[in-house]
Amino acid sequence: MKDYDKKLRSQQKALPYLVSCKSYAQAAKEIGVSENQIYEWLRDPEFKSEIEKQRNQVTKTAINILKMNTTKAAETLGELLFSSNELVKRGAANDILNHVGKFQELQELENRIASLEEKTKETS
Predict the structure, then answer these.
(1) Which of 6, 36, 92, 110 satisfies CB 3.0 to 4.6 Å to 80 for a cystine?
(2) In the 8-state DSSP scheme, what is residue 81?
(3) How far is Cα 21 from Cα 29, in angstroms, rounded to an integer?
C-alpha cells in the first residue's frame, strides 16, 4: 500500500509539470523522474484523464482572459487608425477588415447550418 501511496503522491506532484511543460522529456527533468516513468503513468486512464481535465481548465482560463480583453484590443485597433504613421494605419485597417470579414463568414456559415438543420427536422 505504501508503494501505491508513493506513486499517487508522485503523480500528483507531476501533474502541474505535465500540464505546463512543452514536452514529457522536459516535464520528466523538472519532476526528477525518467521519461519512461511518465509514459508508464500515462497508461493509467484516470491519471491521463486528470491531465486532460487540467489542460482543458488552463485553456478555458486563457480563453476567458482573451475574451475579457477583446473590447480593449478592438479599441486599440480603432485608435491605431488615427496614427500619424501610414504603415500603422494601413495595418490596423487591414486587421479590422480581415477580422470583420471572418466574423461575417462565420455568421453566414452558422445561419446556413441552422437552416439545414431546420430543413432536416422538417423532413424527418
Answers:
(1) 92
(2) T
(3) 10
